Amino acid sequence: MTGPSHVLHLRLALASAEELDALERALLKARASELSEVRRRDVRLTAGYGDSTSREVMDDESRRARLRYDVLTALLEALAVARAAE
């Protein structure tokens, strides 16, 4: 398995621990929303909704939602590491 093809170094100045908590909650909420979208699309696909063209579109939308979920998870993990290093 190869390593990541893009490594981002982000610097974010927050005024308080309260802002950091709010950021984490916002990311968790966004990730939960994406997971909900993935599950909704998967249910529609497994239930056989639509013709083959619409199913391809749903599958593509599900893959994109899963990708967003995965990158939000990676961001939350990086945030947890940064918080532990404080």
Helix content: over 70%
Strand content: under 5%
Number of DSSP-assigned strands: 0
Q: What integer value in Å does the Rg equal?
A: 17 Å
**N-end to C-end Cα span:** 31 Å
Average predicted local confidence, pLDDT:
86
Largest sheet report = none
Shape: elongated
Total helical segments: 2
**Can you tell me the number of structural domains?**
1
Low-pLDDT windows of residues: none
Structural class: mainly alpha
**SSE topology string:** HH
Question: Overview of this structure, please?
Answer:
This protein is 73% helix and 0% strand. By secondary structure, it is mainly alpha-helical. It has one domain (20-84).
Any descriptors?
single chain, 86 residues, mainly alpha, 0% strand, elongated
Quick structural gist:
By secondary structure, the chain is mostly helical. 73% of the residues lie in helices and 0% in strands.
Which secondary structure elements does this structure contain, and how are they paired or packed?
Layout lengths: L16 H30 L5 H33 L2
